[in-house]
Amino acid sequence: MAPDISQLGGQSTASSNILENGYQIPDITFRDPKNRRLKVLTIGCFWDEEAGKWTVKIKQTSESGERVFEETCDLLLHATGILNNFKWPDIKGIEKFKGKVVHTARWPDDYQEEQWKNESVAIIGSGASSVQTLPSMQPHVKHIDVYVRTAIWFISVAGNDGNGKEYTPEERETFRNDVTALVKYANRLENEINGLWEVFFKDSPAQEQAKKLFGARMEEFIKDKRLLKGLTPKFSIGCRRITPGDPYMKAIQEPNVDVHFSAVEEITEDSVIDSEGQERKVDTVICATGFDVSYRPRFPIIGQNGVDLREKWKKIPESYLGLTVPDMPNFITFIGPTWPVENGSVIGPLGEVANYAVKFIKKMQNEFIKSIAPKQDMTDLFNAHTQEFIKQTVWSSDCRSWYRNNETGRVNAVFPGSSLHYMQVIENPRYEDYNITYQNKYNPWAYLGLGFTIENRTEGADIAPYINEEIIDPKWLEVIKSGALAPDSNGK
Question: Highest taxon of the source (predicted)?
């Protein structure tokens, strides 16, 4: 919720600047460069059973060169995310193309409006990044060919402007100077997103109503019958990632844009050939082709008994509540398998995962815990419940989506509940679902120490905190203050 960002959804450079400036992180710990490692690449993470710690091997690049070093930690937070390892399309001849080939996830700084002006461009894909890219390029390029293999449900969010909406100078001024207005606006957006939960149940009244509503909106925006037919999905809303896209629907109808409902079969030195055999000359190919969503980490994470998380998740990625993994002690992952990626907003759940990690840290510190990892049987039961739950939702429908394994049909990504539901589920950790070992294996109660609390040893501290007005029943306080308990004239 940054007060000076220029677009809804933000831009990668703007977001990076916010983090670098650190003005939205009040804790001085994170501002201190000594507590940060920048320009680093994680080589591997290795669990030390005897020490009860993780060893993290890191490579850092600087102007003076590269160095490899190791650090240890008691708790490893795996926050690499899921949509970060972009995937080039498997298209014959792509390596032969002599023009520029760009992936939307790694947009080069030197390819901006001035460079693409008057070019002929091909955009491959119809996902969220394609929907965001086309409206930005369309007014400036000579021509764009868009290759759409899968239809899209366009929804309305943020006054129907969606991601990429440019805030006016007046709006930005308001957000900078009126925190109440900023919070109210952000809350409205979050309520809109979280309000979609009932839509995700197959054949539900909310699903049917949403189809009519968004179908009518698409018909209102897209006047070209061929485009409307090709872009209107036959699958349920939410089966694929739902996308705000009013600017996209406008852009595809401009004279310099052609939409082709066919896959790209081959790329030559200067052209794109689609599945219908049509060849079109282009200067640049934009690949809006998504990410590796296997959940497998890009570096070794070796847990107990030599278990490699890459191998453990090779066929089926499973976790405990999208948070922790058997055989990976003292390990919490953000946006792991079976997490609320499409169940509403991710902002609240991400914050609650951070809270969960803090509770872990406090418990480990207070109780001298050496290792804590979820039980395999409880993890298996949770995933079995999830797969059964998914059957009644739109995610089990037949569509190409990163939420599911498109070969087996198994849904790997989605939690069985709304975003708000997830937050409430993990608010109080179920430590009974974990295997726990202690620093003192002979006496797990050693953390009780000499029986003193901090208050016992602090002069002037309140050592009777259980008696104060704040925790007394308000109704009882009201009775006392009203004098209703005072003795009558007879002393009774």
Answer: Eukaryota
Token digits for 111?
């390819």
Q: Alpha-carbon distance 358 to 360, whole Å?
A: 5
Give yes or no for a contact between 69 and 60, defined as CB atoms under 8 angstroms apart.
Answer: yes
Write the single-letter amino acid at 148. V
Q: Which of 257-266, 278-287, 481-490 has the lowest mean pLDDT?
A: 481-490
The helix or strand, by DSSP H or E, that contains position 78, with its residue range, turns out to be strand 76-78
Which class is domain 39-84+294-438? alpha beta
pTM of this prediction? 0.88
Type of residue numbered 489: S
Q: Does the pLDDT at position 477 exceed 90?
A: no
Give the residue carrying structure tokens 């008994």. 305
Distances (CA, A) of 431 to 53, 64, 364, 436: 20, 46, 11, 9
What CA–CA distance (Å, rounded) separates 130 from 113?
16
8 A C-beta contact, residue 315 and residue 335: no
What are the pLDDT digits (tens) for 254-269?
999 999 999 999 999 9
* Bridge partners of residue 281, in order along the sequence: 271
**H-run or E-run covering 48:** strand 40-48
Amino acid (one-letter) located at 483? G
In this structure, what are the phi and psi dihedrals at residue 117, rounded to the nearest 5 degrees? -55, 130
Phi/psi of residue 80, nearest 5 degrees: -80, -10
Dihedral sign for Cα 451, 455, 460, 462, please. Answer: negative
* 3-state class (DSSP) for residue 469: helix
Q: Do 94-287 and 39-84+294-438 fall under one CATH topology?
A: yes
CA-CA-CA-CA dihedral for 325, 331, 334, 337, to nearest 10: -10
What is the CATH superfamily name and number for domain 94-287? FAD/NAD(P)-binding domain (3.50.50.60)
